[in-house]
Design goal:
The complex is a heterodimer.
Chain A: H1 2-7, H2 11-33, H3 36-53, H4 63-82, H5 118-127, H6 130-141, H7 146-153, H8 157-182
Chain B: H1 4-15, H2 21-29, H3 31-48, H4 58-70, H5 77-85, H6 95-112, H7 129-139, H8 141-162, H9 167-193, H10 198-219, H11 221-227
Helix pairs in contact in B: 7-8, 9-10
Chain lengths: 184, 228
């Protein structure tokens, strides 16, 4: 019903849609760029694109999936304009075992269990490469399934799973480094 | 049984719920690999609990203005009414009439004159104590520096009181204080970028309280005696 009114250009319906989705859209932008002012600009651009393109939404997918695809495109374009490297999502799933060096096996003295706090996790997230960070934010933070992420990012489900696993491994390394600094 | 390297190659599939009996057998026997799986699960669960960030209320006004400029909103009822009431063709105006009207207006302005505009704006309300504290704590780094200098002086005095009596006790106390200081620095750095982050602010308050409790404890002679 709200969507029908938005398609007719109803300003109140636009505002309703904005307040419904603003937190998740802004959070995604902020976690991807790490800067509140840039995140606000990207959020603005994402919602303006939504308002421009809402007529093209046919209902083949959930509205939130369609909206997030739009937001992801806005974020990726912004990162490309800034010249930041984005990990290609068209990678094979073969190279998973190469991430961990052999000496990590048996290093049971830096337990992360119970010691990850929100600040540490957000700080480590900012250090992830953008490609890993995007999949991790969409899956583990926002709760999207791999088939939805694959649709948003125009990649395969296997690639989405592979990127997520690499993101978690990298986060683990970053959090262990931070834990070493606080517990020498 | 598969090796640890093999497990790590298939670990992504295992964590996604794909059934790999060899991986489960290995995990039952291998503590380091179990630790790895546990830590990855902790990361995933912690991420799911991260709160959403809220944009400032002013963002909607920016978006609305930009949408209005682009004409993305349909005109309101009032706007449609005004458009409907407008004449479709401009009325013909006699040049003589127009000239006479302009002259009359100019004469009227000259005769009446315009009083100077004296618009007195109401005084801005003074900032509330919360706003002052917020500005000082986050926006003005010198406040945190002043606080840090004062606290550093107290720490130095207390450590000097303990250290001559017991060097080991002094170093233990110093280590604990340094750990707390590192966490405090992390929270302060985060608040500079995200001043609206309530959870970090709460965490910072908790750390200050912990540090205060620790310093108070160090001052207690009974504690010093019991720790020796």
């Amino acid at each position: 019903m709200a969507l029908a009114r938005v398609k007719r250009g109803d300003a109140q319906a636009f505002e309703y849609l904005y307040h419904l989705h603003k937190s998740r859209v802004y959070s995604l932008c902020l976690r991807m760029v790490g800067n509140p002012a840039e995140a606000a600009d990207l959020t603005q651009e994402a919602f303006l694109q939504l308002f421009r393109k809402v007529q093209t939404f046919r209902g083949e997918s959930a509205f939130s999936t369609w909206l997030y695809r739009l937001v992801v495109n806005v974020v990726l374009m912004h990162l490309r304009k800034k010249g930041l490297p984005t990990v290609s999502l068209e990678e094979t799933t073969e190279a998973e075992g190469e991430e961990e060096p052999r000496r990590e096996i048996g290093a049971a003295d830096l337990r992360l269990v119970g010691s990850i706090d929100r600040v540490m996790l957000e700080a480590a997230l900012e250090k992830l490469p953008p490609g890993y960070r995007l999949v991790f934010v969409l899956h583990d933070i926002e709760g999207y399934e791999h088939n939805e992420i694959a649709e948003m990012l125009d990649c395969s489900i296997g690639n989405s799973k592979s990127q997520l696993h690499k993101a978690r491994l990298r986060l683990r390394e970053l959090l262990r480094e931070e834990a070493k600094k606080t517990n020498p | 049984m598969i090796t640890c390297e093999h497990l790590r190659r298939i670990l992504g599939r295992v964590l996604e719920g794909e059934y790999e009996p060899e991986a489960l057998t290995h995990l039952e026997a291998c503590q380091p690999c179990r630790l790895l799986v546990e830590e990855l699960n902790v990361i995933s669960r912690s991420a799911a609990r991260l709160p959403a960030h809220e944009p400032t209320p002013a963002l909607w006004l920016r978006i609305r203005r930009a949408a209005e400029r682009e004409g993305l909103f349909a005109p309101s009822f009032t706007g449609r009414l005004v458009s409907a009431l407008r004449l479709s063709q401009p009325m013909p105006v006699s040049p003589l009439f127009a000239t006479a009207l302009v002259v009359v207006l100019l004469v009227a302005v000259w005769l009446v004159g315009y009083p100077p505009l004296e618009v007195s704006l109401p005084p801005a309300p003074p900032p509330s104590p919360v706003q002052v504290a917020h500005t000082e704590l986050v926006v003005t780094p010198s406040y945190a520096e002043r606080y840090a200098i004062h606290l550093a002086r107290i720490e130095k005095t207390m450590l000097e009181e303990i250290a001559p009596a017991d060097a080991e006790l002094g170093s233990v106390a110093q280590e604990n204080l340094q750990t707390l200081d590192r966490f405090i620095d992390q929270c302060q750095a985060r608040l500079v970028s995200y001043p609206e982050d309530k959870f970090t602010r709460d965490e910072l308050n908790r750390l200050y309280q912990q540090k205060t409790t620790l310093l108070q404890t160090m001052l207690d002679p009974d504690w010093r005696t019991s720790v020796r």
